[in-house]
Automatic annotation (TrEMBL):
It is an enzyme of class 4 (lyase). Residues 466-476 have a biased composition (Acidic residues). It catalyses: 5-amino-1-(5-phospho-beta-D-ribosyl)imidazole + S-adenosyl-L-methionine = 4-amino-2-methyl-5-(phosphooxymethyl)pyrimidine + CO + 5'-deoxyadenosine + formate + L-methionine + 3 H(+). Belongs to the ThiC family. This is Phosphomethylpyrimidine synthase. Signal peptide: none annotated. Pathway: Cofactor biosynthesis; thiamine diphosphate biosynthesis. The gene is thiC. GO terms for biological process: thiamine biosynthetic process; thiamine diphosphate biosynthetic process. Its EC number is 4.1.99.17. GO terms for molecular function: 4 iron, 4 sulfur cluster binding; phosphomethylpyrimidine synthase activity; zinc ion binding.
């Protein structure tokens, strides 16, 4: 019996997870199986994650969004971590990574697996450092022990920083921002202190065996991703990418699914180059990118600088986007930051799907535009990516129920509303015809994530963190740049 999704796909079997994915993506199950078999898509689905509602990551499917959560030594407990999980899924995260480095890591991780309807990812290197007492004290035995334990706990995918090699380190000399990956810096320090090759690279085959046993998906870490525009697309970044391509093919030999992580900070004119190069070097394995941030000048607004790059990456073929919040580079995000970050990234992902002509992706846009033109305010709110935010902004100036029937908003007022003027002209006996407004979202061919509402996973088993009562409550999430 096949142990992994890719093994089953290669044998010609359509698993229950593939059937569920086909339903969610509105695609033929046979096509899903083919994409998984060829390594062009992954279904992160550890067999011990019983609460999981299976999803797929691949360039031929709707673009997905990941949110990072996690505790530190000084912040959050189990209940707060579950609130973070709920918050992320509520606002549309397709996967969640637990990057915790504080106390009670096992208890929190097991609770996430127990309650999360979306795949859970981790970076086992962090726990290994915590147990060892410092980067230089890590052993290969400890790494394998931690990885196997997390696999047994039900983690669906893990970031493994196996691609940074000793010979790559001199290539970082002269960079403006050095090694900005937390995992990359840990491994680099270990190699410098011990005078040996990357320990994760040394035991990579053993990691593949563990992943094959539990059906854990690789998320191959980009330890040398650029942390500034000046360092983008340099020799260090691309040298590691070549190694990641080799590691991808080695994992496939073990029937293990693989996605590959990407930058980082990249100027706009180099975003597509990064995606295309990864797809070529890694034989089409799904690309999972952080941003990328297209400018370095906007601390406090990096959910915007990165969403620009994320949309471009999605159009170019990136399969999953790791969200960035306004707090990037500045501090731990709170719940409001998470809301803004996920909104920015859901917009980027959807925009990429529309640009790529995914079946039915634009139907949501058309339906909302029709509601906007006909002044159907309630339907416009219902169709919005964030209905509460849309309603809140409208009602700040026109709060009464009577204004839900009004043919204007406070931007233009009655006399200067272009849509009212246009409608009146069409209603007159002129030459302008009435417009078509017949988009049927129930009949749309779009995947679930390209249809309203956002955040439809069942989170009833997790605390709601006061979402309905206090959307500004401080629920700090782990900064996404530190994997």
């Amino acid at each position: 019996m096949a142990n992994t999704q890719i093994a089953a796909a290669r044998e010609g079997t359509v698993t229950e997870e593939m059937k569920r994915v086909a339903e969610r993506e509105n695609r033929d199950p046979a096509f899903v199986r083919e994409q998984v078999a060829e390594g062009q898509a992954v279904i992160p689905a550890n067999r011990n994650h019983h609460a999981l509602d299976a999803m797929i990551i691949g360039s031929e499917f709707s673009t997905k969004v990941n949110a990072n959560i996690g505790n530190s030594e000084t912040t959050s407990d189990l209940e707060t971590e579950l609130e973070k999980l709920h918050t992320a899924v509520h606002y549309g995260a397709d996967t969640v990574m637990d990057l915790g480095t504080g106390s009670d890591l096992d208890e929190i991780r097991e609770a996430h697996v127990e309650h999360s309807p979306v795949p859970i990812g981790t970076v086992p290197l962090y726990e290994a450092v915590k147990q060892a007492g410092g980067p230089e004290e890590i052993t290969t035995e400890l790494l394998l022990e931690v990885i196997e334990k997390q696999a047994e706990q039900g983690v669906d995918y893990m970031t493994i920083h196996a691609g940074i090699l000793a010979e790559h380190l001199p290539l970082t000399d002269g960079r403006k921002t050095g090694i900005v990956s937390r995992g990359g810096s840990i491994v680099a320090k270990w190699m410098e202190e011990n005078g040996e090759q990357n320990p994760l690279f040394q035991v990579y085959d053993e990691i593949c065996s563990i992943f094959a046993e539990h059906d854990v998906t690789f998320s191959l870490g980009d330890s040398l991703r650029p942390g500034s525009l000046a360092d983008a697309c340099d020799e260090a970044q691309y040298a590691e990418l070549d190694t990641l391509g080799e590691l991808t093919r080695r994992a496939w030999e073990y029937d293990v699914q693989v996605m590959v992580e990407g930058p980082g900070h990249v100027p706009m004119h180099k975003v597509a180059e990064n995606v295309e190069r990864q797809q070529e070097v890694c034989d089409g394995a799904p690309f999972y990118v952080l941003g990328p941030l297209v400018t370095d000048i906007a601390p406090g607004y990096d959910h915007i600088t990165s969403a620009i790059g994320a949309a471009m990456a999605a159009q170019a073929g990136a399969a999953m986007l790791c969200y960035v919040t306004p707090k990037e580079h500045l501090g731990l995000p709170d719940e409001a930051d998470v809301r803004d970050g996920l909104a920015a990234y859901r917009i980027a992902a959807h925009s990429g799907d529309v640009a790529n002509g995914l079946p039915g992706a634009r139907d949501w846009d058309d339906a909302l535009s029709e509601a906007r033109y006909t002044f159907d305010w309630r339907e416009q709110f219902n169709l919005a990516l964030d209905p509460d935010r849309a309603r809140e902004y409208h009602d700040q100036t026109l709060p009464g129920d009577n204004y839900k029937e009004a043919r204007f908003c406070s931007m233009c007022g009655v006399e200067f509303c272009s849509m009212r003027i246009d409608q009146d002209a069409r209603d007159a006996d002129g030459e302008m015809n009435h417009l078509e407004t017949q988009t049927d979202l129930e009949a749309s061919a779009a995947a679930e994530v390209n249809l309203p509402p956002v955040g439809t996973h069942d989170t009833s088993a997790t605390p709601d963190g006061g979402l309905d009562d206090d959307p500004g409550e401080d629920v700090s999430l782990e900064t996404p740049s530190n994997d």
